[in-house]
Amino acid sequence: MTSASGTRPFHVLIVGGGGTGGALAHDLTLRGLKVTLVERGEFTSGTTGRHHGLLHSGARYAVGDAESAIECIEENTILRRICPGTFEENDGLFVAITDEDMEYYDDFVKACADCGIPAQELTREQALALEPNLNPSLKAAVRVPDATMDAMRMPLRFFATAKRNGADLRNYVEVLDLVVNDRVVSGAVVRDHVTGKVAEISADIVVSATGPWSEKVAGMAGVDVPIRPSPGVMLALRGRLCNMVVNRMHRSGDGDIIVPQRALSIVGTSSWTVDDPEELDVPVDHVQRMYEEGAKLIPDVARAEFRSAWSAARPLIGSRGDADTGRELSRTFKTYDHAETDGVEGFVTITGGKATTLRGMAELCADIVCRKLGVEADCRTRETVLAPHTEVYAA
Amino acid sequence: MSDAIDERRSRGPVQRKGLGPRPVGWLDPRGRTLGHLAFVANRITGLGLVFYLYLHLAVLSLLLPGGEAWNDFLELATTTVFLLLDVLLLFGLLYHGLNGLRVTLVGTGYVPNRQKALWWAGAVIGTLVLALAAIRILGES
Amino acid sequence: MSMTIDARTDTDAAGTAAPPAGTRRFRVFRYKRGDERPHYETFEVPVGYRTTVFEALRWIQVHRDRTLALRHSCLHASCGTCGVRVNGKEALACVTMVHDVGREITVEPIANVPVLTDLVVDMREVFERFPDDHPIVRGSEFLDDADTPEGIASYERYEDCIECGLCVSACPVVVTAERYVGPAALAWGERVLEEPRGAEVANLLSWANAPDGVWRCHAIFECTAACPSGVNPAARIMSLRGTLLGRRLRKQPRGSDPT
Fold first, then answer.
1. Fewer beta carbons within 10 angstroms: which end of chain A, N or C?
2. CB–CB of B15 and C115 under 8 A?
């Protein structure tokens, strides 16, 4: 894993401390590379920490986006193995409320089978026995291996393991610009918000794992990535209204999922697109819609006590002008080796994807990084059980 | 950038609350609720009672040399100011005693979730007893 | 469909318009490593009816001062990272409405923990106190009459404690007793004893029984008042004390099987 001169290991600088960055730091560290990760805020403070906490079974994508669905169920299984004791493993339900929902039912069950997602058909009575708060006018339900994750603590386990294995993880360090000479990226100019000082970090390869900020960071290298920040609103209510994840059985729409999380119930989500992910609105009508749609699944949503309403921006891959709502864009992930796509050396962008696929995204990206460096090392993240999240703060 | 790392790993100033240096940090009332008031009053009455104990012993030592000093003291002890101080002392005893009971009950695992109600119950009982006693004590002057 | 939406609407249930949005003065604690001492900076921040302290601080960070360091992640009181003191009182910035706080708002980092930068503290001291082995998933006591799906013995949920450190900040004892284990750690200990889930319990009782363990607590209950997640650390500490006293009275050796 050493550089051409043989004097030191290759150094990878990862920009972005979300789930993808953390998983990549872990993967590359296991492959013997020297890793530095810089994150301008707290780890997972971008999009990663904000989602509703669904560990996807992939069932939501089985009908429209089989590729995504298969990625999800694979990663779902792996994550349960490498992060034991980190999920609320109660499975999930897809619930058909209306006749229109029932028209989707057969396609749904078949698509799950095609994608390898275990799906158990349930009658109305069986569903109500499992989740007594469900809308009593439900028609049928299907059980799938959804689960709840803690959106911050699960990814933090990747950070903790990388740190244990020698990665240098720096939160509160913000990249101001990339160091580019003759179309070669060789590092970054950063400000450390702890000291207020500016410094330069050099690296053999810089990887941008910045989610909806991918385009902004790519711009620092003079390249473009087709990422559309797509925010959605979520609503947290006090009280655990269900123990299993509850999904609406229909094509993706607003407010069609309720994820229980500790003593809260999270209703999500909606979708629109923006240019700048820095400050996201929380549109009042979207929150209203969460109450309305959520109450169709579990009527008690309408009376539950408000805890919080917020937005998070998904990084959707597509190009400008592709879509208005963002739902039409793919939720799979991509790695861009900018030497191939733009003739700029030393710079890679990993983007897209969803919280559940963080490890898989990191594996793909690490393969590409190693190939660029001429490093031969296998991925070991499928089997390596991760350190507890507390080790990020106290080893 | 290693200097910046080592610099960062050393600790910054601890943002302590308090009106001054550490020993009185526990007095800072900002953002605090009833439990804190109860605790602070307990400490202050406790200190007050200890101080009174010394006073009391000093006063009793006036008995040693004979009757004169004691008689002088008795004259002082029946003035209104002194009787008011007696009421204050009784307040201290009642507060520290009743709150002490509350802390003992709560602090050994009995009814911890009733700690506020217990404080108010003690406050009501204590106020009644203090009022009755004050009437008796001051009524005689 | 009628429902009391007090969420992000600009009108209340009766349809009355909310007070017009305006600005609030924020006094923010600032500190960078190398400064001689911290100082406060004042910002006028535009706020709406339901703006949270986090959103106001983020506005300052985006529009006024990029060097302002903030800690946040989930924005719904689940991760525990955004703990601050608002006008002296411990709170999670993401669920504290500016409207509820007042006209002038002072924001400071939580107390009793070393400050890293601005409003961010070094959480190492909070996490170091926790017992080594504390599972973060527990049995779910909600909807306990419900069936469970085939293959799942019982429902589970995350523990209430979100490791925010507000209780440590609120505790007047932590101010003066540096080695006091603290409410969050003791509450974790009590939870592990209550529901071991395979965790190591043998040393927990002697850990709790130490002078800087449960006995350092003065039953002040500020920790319970500050906790945003319903952990009730004070009651858990009292429960531990009760257990320890009971064992002492029955003359059991310390540190033995606590069942």
1. C
2. yes
Q: Give how far C166 is from chain B: nearest CA, Å.
A: 12
Instruction: Tell me the pLDDT tens digit for each residue of A210-256.
Output: 999 999 999 999 999 988 899 999 999 999 999 999 999 998 888 89
Inspect the interface and report whether the beta carbons of B4 and A168 lie closer than 8 Å: no
Q: pLDDT of A75-111, one tens digit each?
A: 999 999 999 999 999 999 999 999 999 999 999 999 9
The C-alpha angle with vertex A248 and arms to A247 and A252, in degrees rounded to 5, equals 100
Nearest-by-CA chain A residue for C129: A394
Task: Return the pLDDT at C5.
Answer: 33
B4 in reach of chain A (CB within 8 A):
yes
Antiparallel, parallel or unpaired: β A347-352 and A333-337: antiparallel
Give A318's pLDDT tier (boundaries 50, 70, 90). confident
Interface of C with A in 63-82 (CB under 8 A): 66-67, 69-79, 81
Q: Enter the ipTM.
A: 0.93
**What is the C-alpha separation between C61 and C52, in angstroms, rounded?**
14
Query: Phi/psi at C91 (nearest 5 deg)?
Result: -160, 160
CA–centroid distance for C172 within its chain: 16
Contact (Cβ atoms closer than 8 angstroms) between residue B59 and residue B76: no
Q: Record the tokens describing residue A54, joined without a space.
A: 């669904």
Taking only the tens place, the pLDDT of each residue in A264-274 is 999 999 999 99
Look at A262 and C5 and tell me if their CB atoms are within 8 Å.
Answer: no
pLDDT of C242 over the 50 cut: yes
Angstroms from B95 CA to nearest CA on chain C: 16
Contacts of B25 in chain C (CB under 8 A): 172, 175-176
Tell whether the model's pLDDT for residue B140 goes beyond 90: no
